[in-house]
Structures are given as structure tokens and as C-alpha cells.
Write a structure and sequence with these properties.
about 290 residues, mainly alpha
Length: about 290
């Protein structure tokens, strides 16, 4: 009895923080999502409208367009980070020269705030000032203009996200690789398995929990990105990089439509949970129950 009391006392600060900063804001946004509320209107009182805000979402072309752009951004960014992070983690597992120096340099982007990352990449891509447009046009004959070409802006936001967050993926996969036992790999080499077979049948199944956790974290972050993209493109050109986070910001703050913004936030959260669940169901191999003899 006493041990249970001590356990709950130790958990109390964590539960309190989760309740104050997690449960309470979620319930508040959930309630606001079913109301029409403009705090700066003549009548600032929230008015219950039921599912009207969610009905608007179904026919909101701007929101649906932003949602599709966000899904594309998240897919390409996270996939690139996992692939690149895995190869870098494998490289750091070997005894290569200057491995410690490279590991330190590689993790430096994680220390930079997202808004500073966006500002830095903005300076790198400004025509006539940044080195990226200069060398692309000089070496490859590519006219690089973020404010003109939508595809260039979209790809640049992905590259920026990959540069910023690949070190996190590398560190998590490196920790997973470091904890793997050596015996299965040595036995596979003795049996004559090649590198591809070893990766597919040994490395990937053993690394799958680490990969899943990494993908979940990065996918949730990518789907709610705001700061970096806002500083780099502002959502442009036009609406080419207006992802869901930026779209919600434009609805909530300039238009002060808090109820509709809350509904968009909740729907985005729901879709994120569903995608993570589908990804988990698709990648996790379910063990079959032993058959009764």
C-alpha cells in the first residue's frame, strides 16, 4: 500500500504537467471547434454551431489544398530523412577518420531554432545575394527563383527540413544499431548471406521499433511545420507552400475565426493519429498464435 502511494506521488508532477499543458488545452480546443467565436467582434460571446465548422472543412478548397501539400511535404521529407539518416548511421558505426568531428558537426543543426533555420535558408536563396541561386545558374544553367517557381519553393522547403532534422534521425538509428547483438550477423555471414539479405532479414526487423518511433516523431513534426516555411517562403509563391500550419495561422489571427481554426487543428490532429496508426499496422509484423495440436 505504501509503495503504491509513493509511486503515485512520484508520478504526480508528470501527471499534473500533462493535464495542464495537454489535456486542458485539448478539451478547450475541442469545445471551441463546435462554436462560432470571434473575440474581437461586437458580440465576443461564443455561439454553439454544432458540426458547422467541420462541414465547412469538407467544402473548403483552400484547406484541402493545404492539407494535400502538407501530406506531400511530410512524405518526401520524412522518407528522405530516414534513408539518409540510416546511411549516415551506418557510416558512423564504422571506424572512419574524423568520426567524432563529423558527428559533432552533423548534430549542430539540431541546436538552431526553426525560425533561425528559415531565416538562414532565406538568405541562402535570395537572388543576387545568396550563393544557391548564383551557383545553380552558373554551373547548371538553372534559374532559381523561390518567389516565382512553385516547384522550386516546394522542393526547397523539403531540402531545408531534411538538412535540419536528418541529424535527429541519424542519432536515433545510430542508437538502435549500437544495441544490436553481433551474433546474428556473424552467423548470417558464415551461412553465406549477402549484404542485402542481411539487411532485409536481420537488420530491418531488429531496427523496426527504432524506425517506427523515429518516423512517428518526424511525421508529427513535419505535419505541423510553420516557423521554417514562414521565414523561407511565407507560404508562397501564391499558395504553393501554404501548409496546414500556415493556413490555420492565416485563418485564426488575421480573420480571428477561432472556432474554424480549432476545427482545422482537431482534424489535422485526427489525420496525424490515423496515419501513424496505419503506418504502425503496415510495418509491424503480427505474430501468429501457435496452433493447438
Amino acid at each position: 500500500m505504501r509503495s503504491n502511494t509513493i509511486g503515485w506521488l512520484l508520478l504526480a508532477p508528470t501527471l499534473l504537467i500533462l493535464t495542464v499543458f495537454g489535456v486542458v488545452p485539448f478539451v478547450y480546443v475541442l469545445v471551441v471547434g463546435f462554436a462560432d467565436w470571434n473575440a474581437f467582434a461586437a458580440d465576443p460571446t461564443p455561439h454553439f454551431t454544432g458540426v458547422e465548422n467541420y462541414r465547412r472543412l469538407v467544402f473548403d478548397d483552400q484547406f484541402l489544398s493545404a492539407l494535400w501539400k502538407t501530406l506531400g511535404f511530410g512524405f518526401f521529407a520524412v522518407a528522405s530523412e530516414v534513408v539518409l539518416g540510416y546511411f549516415l548511421a551506418q557510416l558512423l558505426m564504422k571506424d572512419v577518420p574524423f568520426k567524432g568531428f563529423f558527428r559533432t558537426i552533423h548534430t549542430l543543426p539540431l541546436m538552431v531554432a526553426p525560425i533561425a533555420v528559415g531565416a538562414t535558408w532565406r538568405l541562402l536563396t535570395v537572388p543576387g545575394l545568396g550563393p544557391l541561386p548564383y551557383y545553380l545558374e552558373r554551373w547548371f544553367g538553372i534559374e532559381f527563383r523561390l518567389g516565382t517557381y512553385a516547384d522550386q519553393a516546394f522542393v526547397t522547403t523539403i531540402i531545408m527540413d531534411v538538412w535540419h532534422w536528418t541529424p535527429l534521425v541519424t542519432l536515433t538509428l545510430l542508437a538502435g544499431l549500437a544495441t544490436m547483438p553481433k551474433e546474428p550477423f556473424e552467423q548470417a555471414q558464415i551461412d553465406g548471406a549477402n549484404k542485402l539479405q542481411i539487411f532485409w532479414h536481420i537488420t530491418l526487423p531488429m531496427l523496426k521499433p527504432t524506425i517506427l518511433a523515429t518516423v512517428f516523431i518526424r511525421l508529427m513534426d513535419a505535419l505541423r511545420t510553420v516557423d521554417e516555411v514562414w521565414m523561407l517562403t511565407g507560404g508562397g509563391p501564391g499558395a504553393a507552400t501554404r501548409y496546414v500550419g500556415l493556413h490555420i495561422w492565416r485563418v485564426v489571427f488575421p480573420k480571428t475565426d477561432y472556432g474554424y481554426g480549432a476545427a482545422m487543428s482537431l482534424l489535422t490532429l485526427y489525420l496525424t493519429i490515423v496515419m501513424c496508426w496505419l503506418l504502425y499496422a503496415a510495418l509491424v509484423t503480427r505474430r501468429e498464435l501457435p496452433k493447438a495440436e
